Amino acid sequence: MGKWFENKERLISIFGALVMLSLLIAVISNKVGYHIDEISSYTRANHTYGYVGEEGVCYTPANEPYIYLATATEGNRFNYIQVWKTAGEGVHPPIYYILLHTLCSITPGVYNMWYAGGINIFFAILTFFVFRMLLKVFVDDFKIRTVITAFYVTCYGMLSIASFFRMYIIAMFWVTLLSYFFVNSIGKEFDKSLAIKLFLTTVGGALTHYYCIVFAVFISVTYGVYLLINKRKADVGKFCLTMALAGGCSVVLFPRMIKHMFFEHRGEEAMENLSTISNYPERLTKFVGFINSSLFGKYMVVIFVGIAVLLLLGLTGIKKENKVADKDMIARYLMLICPTILYFLMVSKMASFVHERYIIPIYTISILWVICLLSASVNRFLNSKITAILLAVVLIVVSYNGYSNAKWTYLQLDDIEYLNALEAYNGSDCVCLYDKIHRKNRLFTAADYFGSITFVDENNTELMKTVAENQKNPVILVIYAENTDEILEKFKENSDFTNVEVIAEKSDKKMCYLY
C-alpha cells in the first residue's frame, strides 16, 4: 500500500478526486428547490406520465401525489421496458432515466434527492479522472499539472452544474472521454482497440443526449481531416465504418431518436432556430457569457488576449529556445479546439432555450485546452517552475472572481424566502390554479407545507367556482398563469374570502393566503 501512494501522479489524482467529491457534496447539500425539469427527471424515470395530480381531486396530505410521481412504486420497480418507452414519448434518450430509475427502485415510495445528486457526483468524478488523463497528454511538467488540477476541482462552474439534476453531467463525461480517445490516437495506428472505444463511447453519448451526437460529428470531421492530411486513406475507411456502425447501432437501439432530433417538438424547434439568423448575435453573446462567468471568472477575454500576445511573440523568435512546435501536439490541440468551437456555435444557434445546460457537455475540454494553451504559451518564455507560479496566481484570481460573482442558479436559493414565509401557514389547504399543466409540478417542495392540495385549470370556470364555494377554511391560493391578478379576483368572487395576504409573487406566479 505504501508503494502505491509513492506515485505522485496517482496521489494527486486521488487527492483531487476527494477534494472535488467533498465540494460537490457540500454544494448539493445546500440545494433548496428544484427546476421543473429536475422534477421531470424523477417523473420520467418512474412513470409513464410526467404531471402531478388529477384536476379537481383533493389530495391529503398535499405531498402525496408528488411523492408518488417522483418515486418508483412497489409494483413498478426495475421496469426498464417502461422507462425505455417513456423516454421515447419524451424528448431525450433513455440512459439517464434508466440510471435514476434503478436507484429509485431500491427504495420504492421514498423520494431521495441524492439519487440524482449521486449520479451527477459519480460522473463528475469519472470526468475528472479523464480530465487528468488528457492533462497528462498536453502538459509534461508535474507542477503545472497540479496547478491546473487544483483549478479544475475547485472551479465554481464545475461545482454549480453538478447541482442541476439532469443528464448533462453524464453527457459531459461522454464528450470528455470521446475527446481523450481521439487526442490519444494522434500519431498512432487506427487499430481494433481504438475502434471499439470510439464505438462504445459514441453510442453511450447518443443514448444520453443528442448534443453528444453534434460533438461526435464535429470531432469526427476534425479527425478525418487529420487522417487525410497524413494520407492515411485505409484508416479513413476504418474510421468511417466505425462511426457509421455507432450511429446505426444507436438508431437500432432507440429508433425514436430520429423523430426526436428532426421532427418532434425539440427537433422542430432546433430546425426552426437553425433556419433564422435574426437573434443569433444576441443568443451567442449570452452563451459566451455562461462560459465566461462559470469557468473563467469573467476573465475569458483577458486570457485569450494573453494567449494571442504570447503566441505572436513566440512567432517573432523572442523565446527561451528556438523549438519547432511538435506537429502531433498541434494536431492534439486542434482535435479539441475545432470541435469545441463548432459545437458551441451550432448549439448556441439551435438550442431550444438560451440556457447554460446545452453547453455543459464541453465544459471540461474547454477548461483543459484554454488553460493548457495558456500554460504552453507562457512556458515558451519561462522555465516550468516560474510558469507554474504565474499560472497559479492567474488561476487564483480567476477562481476568486468566479466565486465573487457566483449565482448558484441550480440550487434554487430564491425559493428560501417564500418557503420560510409558508411556515407561518403550515397545514393550510392549498388550491393550485394553472394555465399550463406542467406548472403544477413547481409546487414539489412547497407541498410539504400544505395540509391538502387541489388542482384546477384556470379555464375550467365551473370547477373553479365549485372549489371556491366549498372552501370554508382559510386557503393558500397558488396561481401559475400570465394573468394572475384576474384569476385571483375570479376565485374571490366565487368564495366567501375577502382578505388577501401575498406570500410570494413573480411574473407568472402568485401565492396568497385567503381568509
Notable characteristics:
single chain, 515 residues, alpha/beta, six-stranded mixed beta sheet, 22 helices, 6 strands, 62% helix, elongated
Please sum up the structure shown:
The model has no long low-confidence stretch (mean pLDDT 94).
Structure characterization notes:
The chain contains 22 helices and six strands. The protein is an alpha/beta fold. Strands 1-3-2-4-6-5 form a six-stranded mixed beta sheet, sandwiched between helices. Helix 9 runs antiparallel to helix 17 (327-350). The longest helix has 26 residues, at 113-138. The radius of gyration is 26 Å and the shape is elongated. The model has no long low-confidence stretch (mean pLDDT 94).
Order of helices and strands: HHEHHHHHHHHHHHHHHHHHHEEHEHEE
Given as residue ranges, the uncertain stretches (5+ residues, pLDDT < 50) are: none
Largest sheet: 6 strands, mixed
- What is the spatial order of strands in the main beta sheet? 1-3-2-4-6-5
pLDDT averaged residue by residue: 94
Please tell me what the overall shape is: elongated
Percentage of β-strand residues: 5-15%
**SS-based structural class?**
alpha/beta
Task: Give the helix/strand layout.
Blueprint: H1 8-29, H2 36-46, E1 58-59, H3 64-70, H4 80-89, H5 95-106, H6 113-138, H7 142-154, H8 156-161, H9 168-184, H10 192-206, H11 210-229, H12 233-253, H13 257-262, H14 266-274, H15 280-295, H16 300-315, H17 327-350, H18 363-379, H19 384-404, H20 415-422, E2 428-434, E3 450-457, H21 461-470, E4 475-480, H22 484-493, E5 500-506, E6 509-514
Parallel strand pairs: 2-3, 2-4
Antiparallel strand pairs: 1-3, 4-6, 5-6
